[in-house]
Specification:
Elements (H helix, E strand, L loop, with lengths): L5 E3 L2 E3 L3 E5 L2 E4 L5 E3 L2 E5 L2 E10 L7 H12 L6 E7 L4 H5 L23 H14 L4 E6 L5 E10 L3 H10 L3 E5 L6 H7 L4 E7 L6 H17 L15 E3 L1 E6 L4 E5 L6 E2 L4 E6 L5 E6 L4 E7 L3 E2 L4 E7 L23
Parallel strand pairs: 7-8, 7-9, 9-12, 10-11, 11-13
Antiparallel strand pairs: 1-2, 3-6, 4-5, 6-8, 10-12, 10-19, 14-21, 15-17, 15-20, 16-19, 17-18, 19-21
Helix pairs in contact: 1-6, 4-6
The structure holds zinc ion.
Amino acid sequence: MSQGPITVAGVAIEPGERRDLAPTASESYTGDRTTLPMAVINGVGPGPRVFVTAAVHGDEINGIEVCRRLLDDLDPATLRGAVTVIPIVNVLGVQINSRYLPDRRDLNRSFPGSHTGSMAARIARLVSDEVIDGADVGIDLHTAANHRTNVPQVRVDVEDAAARSLAVTFGAPFVLTAKLRPGSLRAVAGERGVPVLTFEGGGPLRFDRDAIEVAHRGVLRVLQRLEMIDEAPPPSHPHPMVLNASRWLRAERGGLLELHARPGVHVRPGDQLWTTSSPLGEERASVEATDEGYVIGSTTLPLVQPGEAVLHIALPGDRLPAEDDPSDEEDDDLDDSW
Ligand SMILES: [Zn+2]
């Protein structure tokens, strides 16, 4: 809870005040200071402390625009509680349009971090100490990884009913419950008692208008639900589908890919998902759904080889299909964020 001044990165922010801070995150080869820009809005009234982070993966830039819009909306003269907004957490990855840091580490596997560790660990530690500690709720904005796209969705800890309820309030088409991944911002915040909603929407290195709109509304709706602001826009999707398991379906044949089940659609057993053809026009594969589910993500490449992930299907109910491959859970290549 925020009542009175709060201190972030050594700066005291009074009630009714917004301060834009730039603590040192790293230094360049030329010795210049690299900062971690953040805005802290301390409201006039008491209320929860919330953080909103984006671009933990440096090529996942939709959230940067969401943060910019959010900062336009938030007024310290009417806010209750405090909001810290970090539009670009991976300040080194963003410079090189990369998911990873220049040393190839994944910042979202480097929390809580340390003062003496890798580049990633040092940035993670700064965020852990200054933003996660002392917060009541966090929202972390992501997109799909390279050559993939995600339908707007919120991912929350399967054990956390309160976070799931906030995720439904967010109003994205889908809420996906999942176990926490070691070293992720969400996992470390969760260990410290701070529930985090992970938003996923669109793909890397482009602005997806729909995903940005869903996330912008969603963040405002969560702040209203927490009674920090009086008004919020209606939900993008009034009845989000809550799903408890998902898996990637992979190609068995190589060639040209034609997707028949687009992201967002509901599929039933027997529905055609995709066909693969050779470049000379021979049909190599026609893949049908074996389970009921929802397409929550897909490849954006029109060419596939055996083993490549094509569609991410979320399944209604509490079950994983018998043929689910648990190794997917640890597959960093498929790992959007969480
Ligand atoms: Zn991500």
